[in-house]
Amino acid sequence: TLSRQPALDALAQRLGPQGLWQRPGAEASTGAAPAFDGWPAHEQDWRGRYRGRALAIARPASVDEVVFVVQVCAQAGIPVVPQGGNTSLVGGSVPDETGLQLVLSLQRMNQVFAVDPVNLSMTVQAGCLLATVQESARAQGLLFPLSLAAEGSCTIGGNLATNAGGTQVLRYGTARELCLGLQVVTAQGEVLDQLTALRKNNTGYDLRDLFIGSEGTLGVITAATLRLHPLPRGSATCLLPCTTLAAAVAALTSAREHLDAGLTAFEVMGQLPLQLLQAHAPQVAAPLSAWAGSATLPPWVLLIEHQSATSADMAQQQLTQWLCGPAAGLSGLHTEQAVVAHAEAQAQALWAVREHIPLAEKAEGLMVKHDIGLPTSAIPAFVEAMQQVIPARWPGARIVCFGHLGDGNLHFNVQPPEGQRHAEGMAAFEPEVNALVFDAVCERAGTISAEHGIGALRAQELQRRTSPVALRLMRAIRQSIDPQGVFNPGRLLP
Ligand code: FAD
Fold first, then answer.
1. N or C, which end of the chain is more exposed by having fewer CB within 10 Å?
2. What PROSITE patterns does the annotation carry (predicted)?
3. pTM over 0.90
């Protein structure tokens, strides 16, 4: 065993001033360089909901340095919080308030090792930004399809640790489906090296799948081999207004049938999130002016993307044929008012509408957020029930609903009544809304977290809503892999 200060001294000596940031004042005793300006960003989450206090921030530059950090921390009993881009929406990536947890940031491990066009794979370090991974694949004429609004800040290690979803799951699956192999540093400081590009490998338990989605509680992902796809030759994108969610679900069924595997995204946006966008980012909301003539925005707007392996013209033709044919025959869809992008820049402007909604929501202020998953067929009845119950119980509360309808994943957020839009008001409002929403989700065989994970935010809820058998098995796995509880204590399984 090692006590805390000698452990920090050992880390400072091995990692150097770039590799170990210490709290201002601490450097006097250790001789390490003072903390850098970037320090606060490592202690606070994206939503500003969780603010912790780190013992130090380790920024290793190699897998050997990660091993060293983990071994020293294990010996000294210092809990380690793995951190990528710190864009977690569930408080999974910041230290707690004790000042005793060390943040292990992967940001300096950001190399793209290789892109392999023959095996349709690429191998990257965990700290690579998702946007860098996408660009590196594209530069070789290939596609890494994972796509989310935080892609300029989140890392591939964080994406895998949370099994991130995003906008292309309908066609390409979640981060799990896009990962072929992993390199992981275990709680004992060993390196599990499984950076393989094999498509098939039935040799015992799938350890890769165990670490994916484990939210930094089982090991530190240091590198990954990713599955790439051929770059589609063209895509077509449209915004499609509709009157009800039942009509939106009928449109999804029809689009799946007629556009088949070319259907890559089927997103839904309610009226209120679009109004928030108009209020907080009017330039981004410009495509919505297509409906400016009508008194209000449509109750729901779909964003649909269709890709073609042949050409952009083909994609456009197929989407238009669907809009003018099968979709036009469905009630509740206003296909005559569809906004179809005719160039890449226009498609990006339509996507910007969807992607800026979380930012507009953030600008609006406090919300109770839910990242729920439901069988798609159950979504209309769920939302209708909530639209009746929530405003009746809390007059003035507003529902901000949008998400990945194609995957049955809704971001179902509730703004408190005006008098309660402050910390105290939220403290009373939030647990009651959560209970109401999650009861309704579970009654319909849904999930309380479709893509954001559990983190600190949903750790208690997971205990309440998961079967004892599943919880026992999860604890047994954690206990056997990280018996000392080195990694991310208090998250996922408190
Ligand atoms: P962090 O936030 O740093 O960490 C997330 C979790 O992973 C933590 O528990 C952390 O301990 C662990 N972790 C991080 N790196 C590693 C590693 N190398 N090894 C082991 N554990 C690690 N998520 C979606 O799924 N879909 C979306 O559409 C989506 N949209 C978003 C939009 C916005 C505007 C924002 C801010 C977030 C969004 N998110 C979305 C949530 C978030 O971006 C994802 O969860 C992302 O995958 C987190 O990556 P990160 O690098 O920021 O990880």
1. N
2. FAD_PCMH (PS51387)
3. yes
What is the 490 CA–ligand 1 centroid distance (Å)? 17
Dist CA 49 CA 134 (whole Å): 30
Q: Is the pLDDT of residue 31 over 70?
A: no
pLDDT, tens digit (0-9, with 9 covering 90-100), for 189-204:
999 999 999 999 999 9
Instruction: Say if residue 35's pLDDT is above 60.
Output: no
Query: Given ligand 1 and candidates 46, 103, 154, 184, which is best to mutate, with the most ligand atoms within 8 Å of its CB?
Result: 154
Q: Which of 276, 263, 262 is nearest to 365 (CA)?
A: 276
Predicted local confidence at residue 490, as pLDDT: 93
Question: Which among 44, 220, 45 is positioned nearest to 127, based on CA atoms?
Answer: 220
Domains and CATH numbers, the chain: 4-105 (3.30.43.10), 112-230 (3.30.465.10), 234-359 (3.30.70.2190), 365-443 (3.30.70.2740)
The identity of residue 80, as a single letter, is V
Residue 52, CA distances (Å) to 5, 95, 131, 399 in order: 20, 5, 27, 30
> Which of 170-174, 286-290, 313-317, 359-363 has the least mean pLDDT?
286-290
How far is ligand 1, taken at its centre, from the CA of residue 94, in Å?
11
